[in-house]
Amino acid sequence: MHFFRPTQLLIGDGGPAHAGWGLVVEHGRIAAVGPVDDVAPRAGSTRVVDLVGTLLPGLIDCHTHVSLSGGLNPVADLKTEGRTRRTVRALHALTAQRRAGVTTIRDMGGPEGLDLELARGLREGWIDGPRMLAAGEVVCITGGHACFLGIEADGPDAVRAAVRKQLKAGCDLVKVIATGGVITAGVEPGAAQMTPEELRAACEEARKAGRLVAAHAQGTEGIRNALVAGVSTIEHGFFLDAETIGLMVARGSTLVPTFAAGQAMLDGEAAGVPSFMVEKIKRVKGAHIASFQAALAAGVHVACGTDAGTPLNPHGRIATELELFVRFGATPAQAIAAATGNAARAIGRDDVGLLAVGRRADLLWVADDPLEDIHRISRVRGVWMDGRHVEGPPPQSVGA
User: Fold this and answer.
1) Which of 124, 288, 338, 385 has its CA 20 to 30 A from that of 220?
2) Nearest to 320, CA basis, from 280, 262, 392, 393
3) How many other C-beta atoms are found inside a 10 Å radius of the C-beta of residue 242?
4) pLDDT of res. 224
5) d(C-alpha 109, C-alpha 81), whole Å
6) C-alpha atoms less than 13 angstroms from C-alpha of 108 in its C-beta half-sphere
């Protein structure tokens, strides 16, 4: 049993910091959390861990791509590099994520089942890194956005077959491509792609298997189609209007805006990010920010996803995503909740994301107070998963 006594503690629910609170970990789970005098265990076998700084839940990155290189043109890299190189790079990506304080990631699509195998290895303990939920291959129309990451399927029956294939392969969620996107040449972010009937077929098959559906959805029509079909999360959401925001609120859907990806492409224009990608991002940036702000104001659930692996957007940049949340209108508390409690809800997990009794003891220790300056979330001192210290110099502990 371990008793953590930080300077302050954040639950992960968007609330204030709690000074003078402690947390008890037993058998990898949180056994108690609250004021130190109320939760301090009796002397005995307990190890007391005093932490100068803030203790909060391990972070969750809801949108990653371990199969993508994060180079200037990841699509080109994917087509020219072999599976061995992609695997080695993916293992490095997992390491970078956990060092940044991320204890859970949701991988949103890659070819040849690499993400499924990595997720299995992490579950079984022969790969080291954050826990991982994997979508496997995405489902898209022929020639549609992200066709290099998945299965091209046209018509409801073909979509059903594609989803069933991924379920058979062991996917943790289903990813559908409802609209065009940025990094695929020749498609428009605002254009709808999968039809309402195709999206509905995907959601029906996923629901029967107890899986959530995430939709790459940037344009208004495609977002609306995806929401009506029953998706749980809208990824990117560049062009939200009052109707789609109302649907999200009514259905309890979550927006995962992925600002870091677009910002990296803009910052990388001079370095050589393909011009067609930069041009698209420049066109949609204003609408993207306005959509996020309107969604926040309306009470839409928002969750953090970096889209890691896209151009010049390597894994482990969750602090950048949270900084952009704040720059574009979120409070630091809202941003942190987007990477903890809200993120856990978005990915369908009730065992992570909050410092609450019964949850896994996935813990992040950072220097100072990230509620005063969100950049401090990047000052990682230590990380625990299931109560096991996995990153940072081991803090000193003493017997109670």
Assistant:
1) 338
2) 262
3) 9
4) 98
5) 17
6) 26
Rounded distance between C-alpha atoms, residue 204 and residue 335, angstroms: 32
Beta strands 59-64; 47-57: pairing state: unpaired
| Same structural domain, 229 and 292 | yes
**Which amino acid belongs to residue 200?**
R
Domain finish residue from 303, 330, 346: 346
- Tokens matching residue 300: 């839409």
In degrees and rounded to multiples of 5, residue 374 shows phi and psi of -60, -25
Q: Tell me the angle at which helices 114-124 and 83-99 cross, rounded to the nearest 10 degrees.
A: 50
Closest CA to 129 of 87, 170, 166: 87
Convert the pLDDT of each residue in 207-228 to its tens digit. Answer: 999 999 999 999 999 999 999 9
Across the strands, what pairs with 34? 22
* Contact of 46 with 53, CB cutoff 8 Å: no
> In terms of domains, do 267 and 297 share one?
yes
| pLDDT of amino acid 40 | 87
Q: What is the model's pLDDT at position 399?
A: 63
Q: Residue 25 is part of which domain span? A: 2-57+353-399
125: CB partners within 8 A, 6+ apart: none
> Is the Cβ–Cβ distance between 391 and 380 less than 8 Å?
yes
Round to whole Å and give the CA distance between 222 and 173: 19
Same domain membership, residue 146 and residue 42: no
| pLDDT at residue 400 in the model | 54
Dihedral over alpha carbons 174, 164, 244, 263 (to 10 degrees): 30
How far is Cα 34 from Cα 364, in angstroms, rounded to an integer? 17
Measured at the alpha carbon of residue 236, what is the angle toward residues 17 and 15, in degrees to the nearest 5?
A: 10
Evaluate whether 64 touches 281 at the Cβ level (below 8 Å): no
- Regarding whether 394 and 278 lie in a shared domain, the answer is no
Q: Which amino acid is at 163?
A: V
Are both 114 and 255 inside the same structural domain? yes
Give the chain's largest Cα–Cα span: 66
Query: Do both 256 and 391 map to the same domain?
Result: no
pLDDT at 398: 64
